[in-house]
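To assess whether the prediction recovers the assembly geometry, we first specified each molecular entity separately, as shown.
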Amino acid sequence: MGGSEARGWLPRRFYSVDAGLIGLASGVRRPLTGVWRLTPGVYRQASDMDVLQVVISGLLLGGVYALFAAGLNTIFGVMRVINLGHGELMMLGAYTTYYLYAEGGLNPLLTIPIAAAAMFGAGLVMQRFLVERVIGQPLLSSLLLTFGLSTLLQGLALNRFTADFRSVPYLSGSIDLFGLALSRSRLVAFGIALAVTGVTYYFLRSSRFGKAIRATSQQADVAQVCGIDVRRVRLATFALGAALAAIAGSLVAMIFSISPEMGRMFLGKAFAIIVLGGLGSFVGAFLGALMLGVAETLAAYFTTTQLAEGVPYAVLVLVLTLRPSGFFGVRE
Amino acid sequence: MKSRNADSVRQLTAEVMAGKLSRREILQRAAAVGLSVPLAAALLGAGAAGAQEATPSGTPTAPPPSGPPIKIGASVSTTGSNGRTGLYQQEAFRLWEAQKNASGGLLGRPVQFIIYDDQSDPTTGARLYERLLNEDKVDLVLGPYSSSVTQAVAQVTERAPLPLLAAGASASDIWKRNYRYVFGVYSIAEDYFKSILLDIAPAQGYKTAAIIYEDTLFPTATAQGAIAHCETAGIQVVVNEKYPAKATDVSSVLTKVRDANPDMLIGGSYLPDAVLITRQSKELGVNPKLFAFSVGAAQPDFAEALGADANYVLGPSMWEPEIDTAGNQAFVEAYRAMFPGREPDYHSATGYSAAQVLEAAVTAAGSLDREAIREQLLSLQMETVLPGKYQVNEQGQMIGHIPLTIQWQNLARVIVAPEQFAAGDLILPTPPWNQRG
Amino acid sequence: MSAGGDIARTRVAPPRAPSGVVEETLPAVGREDAADPGMPSGATQTVKPLPAWERHLPKVYVVLLALAVLGLAFFPSVANDYSVTLALTVLLTVCLASSWNIISGFSGYVSFGHAGFFGIGAYTGALLIYHDTVPWILAVLAAGVGTALVALLIGYPTLRLRGPYFAITMLGLSELARIVVTAWDSLTFGGSGVYLPILYERSERLTNYYAMLILAVLVVLVSYTVGTSAFGLRLLAIRDDEGAAQAMGVNTTGHKIAAFTLSSFFPGAAGAIYARHNGYIDPPTFFAVIWSIRAISTSILGGQGTILGPIIGAVVLTLVSEQVWALDPNAYQIIFGALIVLVVLFMPGGLIALGQRWGWLLRSRRL
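The predicted structure of the complete assembly is given in tokenized form:
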């Protein structure tokens, strides 16, 4: 079958997506060997093992998304600010890890707490002197402010770190599990992401301060009336979000090549996750992140990686227009 | 005294590049440095002299350049998505500028580069060339980095008209538009995998290939070329898939590749995706007998990012520092001297080569007459630091350049093809990941 | 005046106001001028019905604008190609910012979708020109109308979303448009881009400039008309309290969709003109989020919800950034980022408000 048959592919490719998804759905009951998938001009049967492998790759990817989105979501929940500079906080975390590893010779895993602490501090400063000033103002103010911060930080990073791509070659290869390849670096990243998310969740659920954060997230004015220092809650939340982003950045540095411009590409995915999981729903966002990771890899498998790029945005638009409160979230 | 002079050239260049100086300051400082030319010439001498063996211009003992400087404009992406590679090209321009001014200049006049940054954005690139032509009134231009920006810029220079040596572009689309004034400096993107697919693959008996590539102009061109070469060589393309720019995960397409189990995995890529594909191939146990990437594999950072996993990977390279071409060793030494801590990349060499060709054409034309320079650029055949020679067809497309193929062996790039430049033997097939040390 | 207009009279202004604007001495133009709904101002105000003469731009501005247009019309005869391109970029920015202002400045629905409209328009126009199907001017119109149709289609589901949800949905749709255009290579040539014929003759190239000039004049006229109409007042009512507006009988959905559709015509048409001017387009460039950002930051810098604001913002931002850029591209990004932060924190009403406070500008209701 020649590549030329890929011409006028739009309907055909879409059919094959349908076939793939239908096959997938029916695969719950029977083996997935009936699934057809397509690379342009080449039809072949997909194997169960491949699909499972793709799902696992997606899950591992989703773990890191979750960590990034968790910070963004908590900030959004508490102060209704979409932090467009979140990606840059992540980028700075990644560079902290890179420099401590490349220049300081530190084990990349040990750099994670340092990166988190550094960004926690940076988050405090940003919130105290900048973001706090636009709380309660129209949406546009906070959007623009954080966008300005994002541009500023990116420019500074380009100046300091140059546009060179850096990587932290650590933990390459994979573990073989019944014929499934589990990427070492992604597995470790997933584990750390899971642990950090779990600890944060526990903190939000059980600690006094965590409860204050959640209360503020649900009803800020009532929380204030109840004697919660809302300003301090916001300060802590932003710093916490920044620290989570930094940890995600450190993990990403171990998985991908990093550059000053890496932040923005995660932002779209994070929005999709928040929307999928529901505003302010910590568990929802975690599940949303895993779902998005799997949806992306599956879409890439059954269609192409190029089209799969649209998955987060399609999810975003579909969920918002069909079910504005998200799948797990509570209606505002 | 000597070293002070070199330092001043270097410092000036550094400051200019950092954008610290206004144009007037640059001129003044350049003049100041230019005055003490003989010493600087002696210093940069190795480079300048070496370069001149290949070029018909003045000798190292030429009198210092005088008169108003010849202004050469260029915009190079030093920020934005191509910021990394664009910087090499800019450094090459600066080196050539310093060398020329230290050794008699161009047509006896000093040369002065005006370099802007287009942030890897084609519309900005086009506007900046308009600025160079209309505001800065440059006499000559050299091309920007990346095929996309060159496409937009060619529109401006073509109607000026001003000859444009495409110092950083290779997508053959550029030469399919019947431009009269656009000239290639190195092989077209479609030929990047030519030697791998037409020579190496048949010799090894490889019959199938998976081709995955980024969905932008240049990578698509390299991949389309690869597909055409596969057809010629009777190689079956079993996976043919695009992925988006800045992709962060290619596990799905690699799962398909693993399933198809091709003899070769060809990536139409830049550096980050080349690294990503190699890493994930290892993770997923994708074991073709040959890996090759269009851009990325030939860059030093590839091994820095991957460590030993970089070994066995092949890639086209337009130039390598150790090849024995006219003036190449001198170029490499001067480059290292002028930019301490920087290793020239093939993008440095293509930029330098463009400047060499422009110099030769201007010298042969004997003036800055644009038509005369165009005639020279069309008919000129000369050796530069690049392998092969400068020679273009009637469309201005490069036909004389010989792209190299390198392979990573023990964390070093070794030229494995073509024969006359080969420094080592191919090590193929690539062992499966689980059998590597 | 219809019911909608009545609502606008009692409006709760956004709370971020530089207080003191209201108390300041009023200039000669008129008492109601202080209650400027285009500017974020202090506490609850009552906007009284406007006398007819006041709904119009003060004559001095009309004269100034007319002179500016006249000057721009003759500009190419004294300027070189680069300056013309720069002027064209300013006009393009006016189109983007003013049209963004129609939906987002007036109705408060922050759209990050202008990049998408710009890209769709650019591709529609470029492909029509490429295949030589229609004269280029019709291609430009088709691009504008096509883009407006797209906006009409997506307006209904998306404009029901409030605040941040609308903003990020538009961001998502804009990115989706880029992905579809990149992937649909049988139609759009994908990532390789579209090449248009080179315009060798200067007179031919100038047609782009004049087309952009006409479009910019058009968008300013339209936003003036909207700004001074009952329709515009109802949009402002939606911005200030959509629930109340709806309760008072304003067809909020209809108004929002109308404003959205109207707003999207201009980036579409401008995209087509700019594509023709540039001669080469590819998806990463023409769908770049930066086009949305440019529209937004220009409006904000000038003063959102005003007529003159986007114009002033476009002139200042484009010319200043071109200079800074030439100085040091790395600094450019840093300065641009810092500028946005500073404007948001210290100049919420933009240059217009600043000019009014310092007495450079008349305190007209509709600037």
